[in-house]
Amino acid sequence: SCHNGTTARGKPAGHVQTTQTCETCHRSTASFSGAAFNHAGITTGCASCHNGTTARGKPAGHVQTTQACETCHRSTASFSGAAFNHAGITTGCASCHNGTTARGKPTGHVQTTQACETCHRSTASFSGAAFNHTGITTGCAICHNGTTARGKPTGHVQTTQTCETCHRSTASFSGAAFNHTGITTGCASCHNGTTARGKPAGHVQTTQACETCHRSTASFSGAAFNHTGITTGCASCHNGTTARGKPAGHVQTTQTCETCHRSTASFSGAAFNHAGITTGCASCHNGTTARGKPTGHLPTTQTCETCHRSTTTFNGARMSHTGIISGCAACHNGVIAEGKSGDHPRTTAPCESCHKSTRSWD
Length: 362
Hints:
Layout: H1 22-25, H2 116-119, H3 163-166, H4 257-260
């Protein structure tokens, strides 16, 4: 009623524009300074006073923005605790998120000069970033150390090689092509069926190290089995599935391989055990499976055992002349069998013309 600029000094230039009574803000009648402005009911238009002249404005280092104060500041009692509205912001994050104006990279963040938005897809949270590995071919372990980013899983191959030595894709850890260069021992430490592929079904039963037989780290095929010390049980592997079995035309037998085959280096040179064999010789001794009749053998359809009495040698056969009454000279010609003696009478008559016995020349 007095401080109206006429009766007494009124509002100075630049005074807050208000229709409130003086005493709403000014608490002392001795001085106009120290007024406590009552912001009750004020929700907009903050910058009309908070411009750095009429009232305190943005502090040094404030986020660079043309947004109204109330866009972020929710309290008229304090500027602190502002909740920044990131709606519509897709680039330039680091201009504020530099560790001074706003929170920057945390300790242990991936070392990168890429913009925040290259990986962080949400302005509401820094979590859930999808790292862009485009162009990254080396140095994986700098981040993939189990702290900054996911490291080796449980059961990973024990190695000091760099990730990129085996892993070819930055999109996935699967499908790694392990580099076996220089590895000559210890295969089973990885090839145990868990860390890496182990023995396939039907593999030879053995406690030998993989490298005892497998000579190549590029392929399991072409293994050269070491038979040293093996003297029995051949058929447990040599069954035609696990390892090569009997070839076509092999002697029909249920005997073990080692009964005849004396060498683990080769199937050739087998010494057949004829013990107990008294018949059926020709089923093997046919010139294909085993040695047959030699050149000049008596022409006969009789079984071998009719004349040959020994299974260890073809020599010393006793010809059974039973039923033979003619054609003696076909064999008794001095080559196939004993012929005429030196003092035999000169004749072209057949043997049986005079000799009546197949047991004796008498």
